[in-house]
Amino acid sequence: MKSLKEKNKLRQFSWKSISFKWTLLTALSITILFLSFGFVTYQISIRNVYEQEEKDFNRTMKEINSRLSRSEDPLTLHSTVSYLKEASSRYVGDVYYDRSSLEASLMNLNSFISELSQPELNVKIYGVDQRLVFETRGLYLPFDDSEQGKITIQTHNNITGLIALEPIKSNETGKVIGYAQGFLELNSFISVRDKMFKTLVVLEIVGVIISIIVGVLLSTYFTAPLRKMANSLNSINEAYKTEVRMPVPKSNDEISDLARAFNDMLERMQLFIQQQQQFVEDVSHELRTPVAVIEGHINLLNRWGKDDPEVLEESLQASLQEIVRMKSLVQEMLDLSRAEQSEFHYEDKVSSVVDVLKTTVGNFSMLYPDFHFNLDIDLAKSAQIKIYRNHLEQLLIILMDNAVKYSGERKEVLVSASSSYRTVDILVQDFGEGVSEEDLARIFSRFYRVDKARARHTGGNGLGLSIAAQLVNNYNGHISVKSVLNHGSSFKVSLPLVIEEPEEIAKIIKRT
Length: 512
Prior knowledge:
Helix content: 55-70%
Radius of gyration: 52 Å
Number of strands: 12
Structural class: alpha+beta
């Protein structure tokens, strides 16, 4: 069976891989974009060239019409040459042009006539009887009076060009004195168009190749962190036993966010598994003694103790006591497990600290009437802290229960609350046995008892302060202890204060 690492290598080059899809989509996108841009550019360029050709041809035809329309009589060869020759000359009717004089005159034509003589342009002038009187080239063009006043594209003698036929009206009489026909070959335009199209095709092929190369490079660059993550995951066979984490890219993008989220998930998974293992180890360790005690008494009864009422009574009482202690231990272990999970279930909960303090202290006053509980609150009644109410009550019960158990002869417990910068400080102080400096370092450890003999007498399992510390840490708080032997202990808990917005403060002031 192939390993995950080998599968990842094969998948990198398969059609289902991100690299292949990325390359395909990048190439396709660039190709479509380049093709669209090239097509639009091609169409605009060709259109501009065509419009310029049409504009020049239209201007030439209008100039011909403007020059010839100065004649009052129907156009002839001689009058046509004269009016085309000079824009401001007047035709002298009794002048006769023979072929030799006409050729000599054509040698002196102005620049406009030179323009008419360009090889791409063919101009024909017809008389009123539609007979040809003048032409610049001998190209056959049909005389179609139905197309008068229009510029169209036609092909004659395998030559494609613009053709136009316009009537010429005298400026003096307003009568038609002839017709002007023009044909502009589009060979240069077609040549430019074909070259542009070939260039576009070549550029498109080059663009496709470049887009594929760019797609491969981009997919390789952007998927490289993902491959590194996959390789790191392959090396993590047992995540809860290793500190290996996914590499976080320095790009600070979505991939780095993914890596951080996955590392956070690994840390949480590791924490959960460690907590589970710790729970199993602690329970098995702590239950071993009471189970052994109960088993010993039952064996004693089974052998001969059941016939001795005194031994029977003693064994039953001892077994019941151990069972009660086991129930207490299991309950505390469950409380500790819940405390460890509270960070993820109650992180947005808040509590009114004044109400909880008064309620808890009041309950202890009823449970222990021989104790004096001194409550000192230096907080606003509306003050709230970031902790679930049940957990705050549980925390206070643990601290006050410890204070009662270890108070000694002076049955007095001091509970105070005050605010500092963004926190609320809760102090629970007793005046009992105290704790040595050596024991203070481990007082919040699981199952740690300062005096194991006395702890068994008071019924403690060494989990209460561990639960308290876990609850405080889950809500980003801090717990500390100060103690002096034979003078008492003081536990201080600091929890985040809920900072009210200015609008809420204004509402409170307005109500008061």
